[in-house]
Amino acid sequence: MSDLPRRPWHGVLVATALPFRDDLSVDHDRYAEHCAWLVASGCDGVVPNGSLGEYQVLTPEERARVVETAVAAVGGERVMPGVAAYGSAEARRWAEQAGAAGCAAVMLLPPNAYRADERSVLAHYTEVARAGLPVVAYNNPVDTKVDLVPELLARLHGEGLVQAVKEFSGDVRRAWRIAELAPELDLLAGADDVLLELATAGAKGWVAGYPNALPRASVELYRAAVSGDRATALPLYRQLHPLLRWDSRTEFVQAIKLSMDLAGRYGGPVRPPRVPLLPEQEAEVRAATGKALAAGPA
């Protein structure tokens, strides 16, 4: 088991896939085992109830139990749940639930029911900060249509509302601007396929998808990248990149779950409205996963 990171959002935090049984009920026992296995494999923590965890299609009871299951499996200091919701009050309640369960931090998208302006974004993060837990902002303008640009992130941080940002815009140039405007705001790589670039720019962590299937190789890549060991990081990055780029595609949940199945874990089905991969997509994931598994330890 790895040493605890200095802050709850430092290191490799796995945005966990959620196992469903054949009847699409949540398999909480299997989820607990998965969280424990990830930490035993070198990951620093888990992020339940993110998009990869299909939180949008969970009942409130399921969503709360997922957090409690993760905390029981690996300890609250290693669990940073996603608390996204359409309403700010609801997001705050999810943050309060996380705190009651023992979590040390939460991850929060901006308002995403509409194209929120800066005032709405500030009000949203202010409301959730009232729960009392450190908040990691999640910038995903592709899906939310709300862009936490560096200037807005600097304001959120300056007002004490966020401590870090999971950066998923894909624009690696932003890392340098964020560092200029808010040097104390921790940058987290948010998309698997820009890890090396953001690690070079000073990322303090990686909220990652593909460690669900390949934790040891992913941790090796992250440690080499942040330490500047390019001799190790570059060939590993090239080897894994055909898989890592699936994390930025619409079918990322299906792809990562398939890779888990191929790696001897349990990915299992997805809940509607997601549907299985197309045959050509499945063939691509199978081929890339097979090459990654053949190249070294998962």
From TrEMBL:
What the entry lists under InterPro entries is as follows: Aldolase_TIM, DapA-like
Question: Keywords for this entry?
Answer: Lyase
Pfam family membership, one: DHDPS
SUPFAM superfamilies for the chain: Aldolase (SSF51569)
CDD domains in the record: DHDPS-like
Q: List, alphabetically, the PANTHER family matched.
A: DIHYDRODIPICOLINATE SYNTHASE (PTHR12128)
Entry similarity comment: Belongs to the DapA family.
Q: What is this protein called?
A: Dihydrodipicolinate synthase family protein
